[in-house]
Design goal:
4 helices; OapB-like; DUF2073 domain-containing protein; 134 residues; single chain
Length: 134
């Protein structure tokens, strides 16, 4: 092994693509800006991030806002983000009106550097993406 390590000490191969799978449990203990920094720090390193439970609409908007402020012509090119919608089994409009819907209506979310990931196809059951090396 070459001895490369990611920010959390995990082994990393210099010519591969690192994918960080982040559990809902880990993200649930973080505040919005901590979530955004966790995601963007990993994406800045060229990694692909997969969130088990995705972000709330407000968190996703903030992620895009922070990303836009960090884009630079010779450096960070931004992010590509795709999310599966959560199946609608919450009982419909009545439960949403009564405040029983989840704040986070997304499940799996894939986030990566805009210059390394390209979405080829997305539907309710599949996200197909092409990931390139640096």
């Amino acid at each position: 092994m070459s001895g490369f390590q990611s920010s959390d000490g995990a082994p990393e191969t210099p010519d591969g693509v690192q994918i960080d799978l982040i559990s809902a449990g880990r993200m649930s203990n973080l505040r919005t800006m901590e979530k955004i920094r966790t995601i963007l720090d990993s994406v800045h390193e060229g990694n692909i991030v997969i969130l088990e439970d995705g972000l709330s609409p407000d968190e996703e908007s903030k992620l895009i806002e922070v990303t836009m402020s960090e884009i630079s012509p010779d450096g960070f090119t931004g992010i590509e983000i795709e999310t599966y919608p959560r199946p609608s089994n919450d009982g419909g409009l009545f439960n949403r009106l009564m405040g029983k819907s989840s704040d986070n209506d997304n499940k799996l979310t894939v986030i990566g550097p805009a210059n390394r990931i390209e979405t080829l196809h997305k539907d309710e059951n599949l996200i197909s993406a092409l990931v390139t090396r640096r």
